[in-house]
Amino acid sequence: MIDPTESESLEELDRFCEAMISIRKEIDNANINDLNNALKNSPHTQSMVTSDTWSFPYTRKHAAFPLPYVKENKFWPTVRRVDDAYGDRNLICTCTPIEEFMKD
How many domains does the chain have? Predict the structure, then answer.
């Protein structure tokens, strides 16, 4: 469910809707038996997209900039997935423990 607030502009809400529609189209177009698709292989790092070799069946442009406005606001992930779903569910924090900040 989406709960738009006064803090989001109509332009931002339109971009969000466009992104959701685009993701749905990618899901519909992805071959469920073919694991070599843009959704399964995402995120694509900058080093992957700018590499001399590209072994995916879709274009670099599609991998890096699936929608036109992404070019202006691109966030490049530094790493790809770590152990797929296992890594998503079992995050490890490497931050300094909060107790270190509580010492006198």
Answer: 1
pTM over 0.90: no
Q: Kindly state whether residue 29 falls inside one of the protein's structural domains.
A: yes
pLDDT in tens, 25-44: 888 877 767 778 888 888 88
Cα–Cα–Cα angle for 99, 102, 104, rounded to 5 degrees: 130
Count Cβ atoms below 10 Å from residue 44 Cβ, excluding itself: 19
Give CA–CA dist 70/64, Å, rounded: 8
Q: Which two tokens stand for residue 75?
A: 């966030």
Please give the backbone phi and psi of residue 78, each rounded to the nearest 5 degrees, phi first.
-85, -25
